[in-house]
Amino acid sequence: MSRCKNGVIEQTYILSVDVGTTTIRCHIYDSAAKVRGTSSRKVELLYPNPGWVELDPDVLWSQFVSVVKEAVEASGLHMRQMCALGISTQRATFTTWNRKTGRPFHNFISWQDLRAADLVKSWNKSCLLKTINGFSKVLYFLSRRKRFLAASAHSFTTQHISLRLVWILQNLKEVQQAAAEGNCCFGTIDTWLLYNLTKGSVHATDFSNASSTGIYDTYQMCWSHFFSSILSIPLSVFPAVVDTSFYFGQSDSSIFGVAIPITSVVADQQAAMFGECCFDVGDVKITMGTGTFIDINTGRKPHASVSGLYPLVGWKIGKELVLLAEGNAADTGTAIKWAEKLGLFSDPLETEMMAKSVPDADGVCFVPSFSGLQAPLNDPHACACFLGLKPSTSKNHLVRAILESVAFRNKQLYDTMLRETRVPVTTIRADGGVCNNNFIMQLSADLLNQKIYKSEFVDMSSLGAAFLAGLAAGFWASREELKMLRNAAKIFKPQKINGDYEEVMCTWEKAIRRSLDWYN
């Protein structure tokens, strides 16, 4: 895209920043969705206590500004040529800050943080929640409204913000007092970045990020008055919720030297869904990075889950509203990095050949549960473990067991999604760093008995944020144009009947059951 300035025709570009769990990365895209410049920094995670995972808000903001400046410099372009900025962020990581001074009360509490595990267990066993579940069952029986079905199976998890925010309010008196006085701002990473980019003039988030908090009602499309009330969270702390592809304002010119329009803010998995062009009902996206996230487009209706799938807003653009059902496994790349640190291999690229060098895992099973187990098991107290070790067990067997566990969790989540949503699957697209492992991809295709299209684009969340920002800025004209830019680098077709792995999966599921409630 080009524009004329002072009689000179100048090409313009889209800035896109993705704040992931381990990396913050900026890409500059041209109109063909090709990357013209890039920069990345490692996200600095803090572990002040066992089970606690934090990020310093000021460090994150400094890294955000740095990667933007470095990417523009690397591209050889000028900041004035950036016609729009899109932001994709990890979800359910939050902080709170003083509304008057803009200073954070505490570090970001990561979505991986387990400090609220006891609160989660207490609430899930409470008479109040059991009463809510029971009463909702009656209302669903009488009305057949799916929001009551969802409420009848509602349970809290550590991955949702709700009880981690309750923990902060209960343990940090400064936050509690500020909230009571209306002087407390709550925000996920996107909200904090918007607030700083606009020098405090914008306290907002988008529908995709809001719906990922566990405090947002996707049926009423507003912050949940009900759960805010029973959890004693003042509604005044929450940001405004606006469209995903939208003019949020512009960055203060003192930050980058020019004011840059901010035209998309989106949660990372929903951004990847948009980047994969999963625009139709039944489109499925599998992202395998730090964790695995499987999302299916369910149209305009939120999914009511009884097994732990979560109804999310994919994106909202004007009158268009797209809902998703999502299941996740928290420890995919985490398990592989752990194995690398343990010395099982020196480079993750080695794992594919190591797994293929043995015919099976020699009866060894690995449970990938450093952060508990999510749907359909939903146990924050589950432990990670190897079972079935023998004197004959080698490094190759251990590595194969780890890679198999990733594909087994994919199968588990996929079957849960099919059983619950009853939405016919149209296509399955995969992205994320772990997708570069052909062993995992082929085994997943075999187990799901479906073709899986692996994208040629690596950073799909960044591309999705760029697409959303570009549509709002008029950089791209339509979704059809975006589809033309999408290409599959490889297609994995089922080669074996998944029954070949039936006995191995049964043994693995037995290992999963042994790991449950370990840390209780």
In short:
The chain has 520 residues and is of the alpha+beta class.
Task: Characterise the protein shown here.
Helices cover 37% and strands 24% of the residues. The chain has 520 residues and is an alpha+beta fold. The longest helix has 27 residues, at 395-421. The radius of gyration is 23 Å and the shape is globular. It starts with a strand and ends in a 5-residue tail after the last helix.
Describe how the helices and strands are arranged:
Layout (H helix, E strand, L loop, with lengths): L1 E4 L2 E4 L1 E7 L3 E7 L5 E8 L2 E2 L7 E2 L1 H19 L6 E8 L4 E5 L9 E2 L7 H8 L2 H17 L2 H7 L8 H11 L1 H8 L3 E5 H9 L6 E3 H4 L5 E2 L4 E2 L1 H6 L9 E3 L2 E6 L2 H4 L4 E7 H8 L8 E5 L3 E8 L10 E8 L2 E10 L3 H10 L8 H6 L8 E3 L17 E3 L7 H27 L6 E4 L6 H11 L3 E4 L4 H14 L5 H7 L2 E5 L9 H14 L5
Parallel strand pairs: 3-8, 8-17, 12-15, 18-24, 24-25
Antiparallel strand pairs: 1-2, 3-4, 4-5, 6-7, 7-10, 9-11, 13-14, 16-17, 18-19, 19-21, 20-21, 22-23, 25-26
How much helix, percentage-wise, in residues? 25-40%
Shape: globular
Number of strands: 26
Amount of beta strand: 15-25%
Give unreliable regions as ranges.
Answer: none
| CA radius of gyration | 23 Å
Features:
520 residues, alpha+beta
